[in-house]
């Protein structure tokens, strides 16, 4: 953990080092992945069966066994305690409502000059949702990825999830059921991505693949990009907390650790204007690290990537926040909206002293799939926009073409594109003749 | 050129072959490109000077010579005939108006339960615009790439354009001036992309790079993706024309050729319900191919990738159009909107008999940078959305956290994330104590 102060002479190089801290070391798996994709393309279902036996430690008896049955889904739901099912439903209801508010309107400009213009949004036909197996199988991620697709109007959402040792994860199945996902395949890894992109005898291809995964899954998504769309490939998680001394240091410490417990490569940063408060937070972090269940992971993240930055005022803090462009930003100040107004780059913001980032991970409503590694400078969290695309349109009446056609002809000729110009000019000539 | 009919027994495999037609053969240039990027990262401006001498055939006298001066821009504008400047202005004015109509509204949900939610759009800080040099230097592309960024509110648009042999392209500079782009660098290729992504002593880095380029530029964009955002990498252009026998075959033929003249790999397809009309269009294409300035290119595109498909009705045509998911779609029918209502996948549509696609390339208003190669199934044309990103936000009051916090705690515990749950629970416990 590093302690910096903007008052120090060496602040700028130290802050720059923090910005340049490449927390991810990606394994090179491109060769292995392209071999797997090749097998699935060549052999379809047979390759899926063989690769599932090899990598997931169970041997499906034929292709039918790869599809999760409605009975298996119902049994999963029945096995979950009602309070937890209720929590899942609260989360889903709020996520749906927020994403419905994102749905954009079409544009329809009649035009006063004989040229009507517009833009229409359409949902994608089919989306594939990758859900990791094992310890990182998060029901909240199923909701966050599937619900925006459903709200956007995607007709077919096909989920793939590895079932290591053949074990189904009941909470993941329950989340899928609540999200309206009925097509679930027990395949994972690069082979699942290949099946979604290229299709097999059993699995129809999709148009876009979303959802988190390990290095093999990320590389497979990279390799099938172009044939299908993909979401951005997430790096380790981050939080930046702006907090003054009026906060409870224990609250701030736990907010920092909630991020750190995700992954040793996660990063938690506190910016404050009070040195004594900074010290109090650091002590609370150390205290909590003696008791937390995931203290080994959280402790390593805090030690390696954590930072506390002392600033002279909140304008200085905003300038640093914009350079960090964090995935998650907590603003724990008296007037959080005033400071938020000066923030240009952040994936998601959590305003005030009673809004720990964790409520955004589960139940607040906005998506928890967010841009990492400073990419909120140019990209955004998952949303209904990921499952919609636009078609623009133009409809010219004869007098409209007469009005704007000559400019098109001039520009086409200046660019040396004769048929472009001619396709407009022959129509203009004919109108001239008819007059 | 192929002629298909849905009435033929072998239609399905032949149509599938058309869908699978990979028109692009990308050269492998990744090694050369990563070497160039490495040089620019290590040496900055010095590498730009050396690489410009090597690849562009002129030797800039120092870094200052790489920046186009206001005097050079004004001289370029003065050299262009007024009619053409007027056409450029007509185009720019209409493009601006259409893209302004795209600007989305923020979301601000006060919430009735003590949890306010919202989403805010912000423009990117800085965007790089790649403009190809030489014969493919299109002023219309400068407008189509730069104006949406300006309309979105991007403060800094930095343009890079190679000047082979040292020659500036006056129309490109005039288009840049009209689009409000004042920062223009005379560099191109992978070195220009590297400079925009990583920055040099003279060129500040940007957040996203857009604009077309050759194989080196496309590969450089792929390699810097992640550090900065990039636009999608365009393949060869396509048009699909749906036309009945009430059209003039010469109009349809010229619309097909306007696409074919772009590139030998371009693809023009006609779908019609009238065999005699199809033959008339084919004859008109052959006739026009004897006179067009770019007949060699257009002829090769038509011969290799062109197709005419006979259908029994327009529903059948719509189904095929959705499978083709064309970049450009012309619907030359009496009621084009009824048929357009059945189209789910197309980059841009041109409705009616008086709307040749070429007016969309220049002056209609919607963007001409569009998804190719069937990718309109999952992606969209360039727009203000490419230059904006979203930050979601949540602000919970104490009673709001009391309402939704317990569900977050349950879900966090079910996922084994103890600090997530604790960050909510310690606040709930404290409120309990205070009551």
UniProtKB/TrEMBL annotation, chains A, B:
Binding site for NAD(+): 130, 191, 214
Chemical reaction(s) catalysed: L-histidinol + 2 NAD(+) + H2O = L-histidine + 2 NADH + 3 H(+)
Protein name (database record): Histidinol dehydrogenase
Pfam families, per database record: Histidinol_dh
Pathway: Amino-acid biosynthesis; L-histidine biosynthesis; L-histidine from 5-phospho-alpha-D-ribose 1-diphosphate: step 9/9
CDD domains: Histidinol_dh
Residues that bind Zn(2+): 259, 262, 361, 420
Listed Gene3D superfamilies: 1.20.5.1300, Nitrogenase molybdenum iron protein domain
Species of the source: Roseococcus pinisoli
Gene that encodes the chain: hisD
EC number, UniProt record: 1.1.1.23
Cited function: Catalyzes the sequential NAD-dependent oxidations of L-histidinol to L-histidinaldehyde and then to L-histidine.
Annotated catalytic residues: 327-328
Molecular function via GO: histidinol dehydrogenase activity
Protein family: Belongs to the histidinol dehydrogenase family.
Keywords: Amino-acid biosynthesis, Histidine biosynthesis, Metal-binding, NAD, Oxidoreductase, Zinc
InterPro entries: Ald_DH/histidinol_DH, Histidinol_DH_CS, Histidinol_DH_monofunct, Hstdl_DH
Cofactor remark: Binds 1 zinc ion per subunit.
Cofactor(s) the record lists: Zn(2+)
Binding site for substrate: 237, 259, 262, 328, 361, 415, 420
């Amino acid at each position: 953990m590093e302690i910096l102060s903007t008052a120090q002479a060496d602040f700028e190089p130290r802050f720059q080092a923090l910005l340049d801290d490449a927390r991810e070391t990606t394994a090179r798996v491109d060769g292995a992945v392209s071999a797997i994709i090749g097998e699935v393309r060549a052999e379809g279902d047979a390759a899926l069966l063989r690769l599932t036996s090899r990598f997931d430690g169970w041997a499906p008896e034929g292709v039918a066994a790869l599809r999760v049955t409605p009975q298996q889904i119902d049994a999963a739901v029945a096995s979950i305690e009602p309070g937890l099912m209720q929590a899942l439903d609260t989360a889903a209801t709020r996520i749906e409502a927020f994403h419905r508010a994102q749905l954009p309107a079409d544009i329809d400009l009649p035009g006063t000059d004989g040229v009507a213009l517009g833009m229409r949004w359409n949902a994608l036909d089919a989306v594939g949702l990758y859900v990791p197996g094992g310890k990182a199988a998060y029901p909240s991620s199923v909701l966050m990825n599937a619900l925006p697709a459903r709200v956007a109007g995607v007709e077919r959402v096909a989920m793939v999830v590895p079932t290591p040792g053949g074990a189904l994860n009941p909470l993941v199945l329950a989340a899928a059921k609540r999200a309206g996902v009925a097509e679930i395949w027990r395949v994972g890894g690069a082979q699942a991505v290949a099946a979604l992109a290229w299709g097999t005898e059993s699995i129809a291809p999709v148009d876009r693949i979303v959802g988190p995964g390990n290095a093999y899954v990320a590389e497979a998504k990279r390799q099938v990009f172009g044939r299908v769309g993909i979401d951005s490939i997430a790096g380790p998680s981050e939080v930046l907390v702006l907090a003054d001394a009026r906060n409870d240091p224990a609250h701030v410490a736990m907010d920092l650790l909630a991020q750190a417990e995700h992954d040793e490569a996660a990063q938690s940063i506190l910016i404050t204007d009070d040195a004594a408060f900074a010290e109090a937070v650091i002590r609370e972090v150390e205290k909590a690290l003696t008791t937390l269940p995931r203290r080994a992971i959280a402790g390593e993240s805090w030690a390696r990537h954590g930072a506390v930055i002392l600033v002279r005022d909140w304008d200085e803090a905003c300038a640093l926040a914009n350079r960090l462009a964090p995935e998650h930003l907590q603003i724990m100040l008296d007037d959080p909206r005033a400071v938020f107004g000066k923030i240009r780059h952040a994936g998601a913001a959590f305003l005030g002293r009673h809004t720990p980032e964790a409520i955004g991970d589960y139940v607040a409503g906005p998506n928890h799939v967010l841009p990492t590694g400073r990419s909120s400078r140019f990209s955004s969290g998952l949303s209904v926009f990921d499952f919609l695309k636009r078609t623009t349109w133009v409809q010219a009446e004869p007098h409209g073409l007469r009005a704007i056609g000559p400019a098109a002809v001039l520009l086409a000729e200046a660019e040396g594109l004769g048929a472009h110009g001619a396709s407009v000019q022959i129509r203009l000539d004919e109108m001239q003749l008819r007059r």
